Here is the input.
Amino acid sequence: MGRTRNAHKKRLLERQKTTESAFYREGHEGLRPLKRVDYEDADVTTDDSDGDYDDSDGDYPPETTRKRARTQPRTPREKLVNITITRMMTRGWRRPTLLQLTYYDCPSSRMRAIKTWGSEIPAPDRRQATQRRVFQGKRINGKRVIGTYADKKSVTLHTLDQSSTSVFSGGRPYVAWGPGEDERENTGSHLDISLRLMSFPEEHNMVAFARIEEAMKLRKKDTRRVRFINRAFPFETACRFLRAAIKEHRAEGKYLVQMSVCGAMLNAGGEAARAVAGPKLVLAKNYEACWTCEAFHDARTELRGEAEVQKFKAVVLGEAGDGYVMDIGDGRGEVRHAVDCTWDQLAADMEKSLDDVLKSRRLQRKDVFVYCDATPPCSGISPVGRPSDEVKASCLKFIKQTDAFVHRMHAKGVFDAALFENVKACIDLW
Here is the structure.
């Protein structure tokens, strides 16, 4: 009897290791889904998301801490230690948290380093978002779509009830309308599909892409439009985080001012602000060096007639005296561009923009919720591009400068809440 019980317990533990524990350890680093939990020394809650965990030293694994809190009575000393750790975790560490964004309404796989200020990271869904929302009723070459492949010769089909592989600048994943190799097509030629795999709507975006042909001709690098979709932060995920921040601050009825630092062409932060706030959005401003991105932004705002609300400022950010090698779409290709806007100047411009909105709308600061999305470039640290140590160090320096800037602006009270997003490699190099 005892032998049977032990075998059953062993099977349960192995199952837990390969499912729940792996899910949190590899994808969310201790962030828990919504569920009801009663703790011995805390109030009853239905939101059991603890926010930003750091388990880099391995001393306090989230799973172990949770198990002990539920099943074992604690001594006063143990209780004090665990409460302190929980508070530190909830407040957030300097190091970002790794999240799988398929649990945040993105139908394509996307592991990202996420950090928040002024609000907790929202709890993930229990199930991943699927491709069905993208391909429902969709036909390619007159045939019904059955899923996607990671590559041209991949044998593993991701069905409509699964999430797809990540959207890559080369045009992957491949959309499939049959099981054969000849019955699949690169999604890069279907911008509408790539947009939806990143949860962006086709409306206005497809027309804006068509209107930037002249701007794209000036580029020497990243000449494919899908590259700008690949580098974007998923739209629905951005909406999810913004709604959570607004709810936590009880700012549902307030006006919204949104700032984006390196929001890129599609600028999911600004799009999320527009979708969530609606007429309550009084300003969405994006600071980005890319002239191609500015052309796309101008085309889209012209289509919508929202140029007064959604603004773009092309600047090269950084510390005074620094410079970065990049193609900003000015026709010169990859050359060194000196910083023309320091972090102090950026802070002053943001504060002035906020003051101008308050004066023009005759609003008080308490009537406005200010939110920031910071998505600094990651190509310099991404292992896909195999960057040199010099490029990697330069990119990481800029990422940490962005992180420090957002932290300072939130501490100063300019931002009520903020979001930082980057690639997984950012955590490894932090």
Q: What stands out?
A: DSSP finds 15 helices and 15 strands in the chain. Residues 132-198 form one domain. The chain has three domains: 2-91, 97-123+228-429, 132-198.
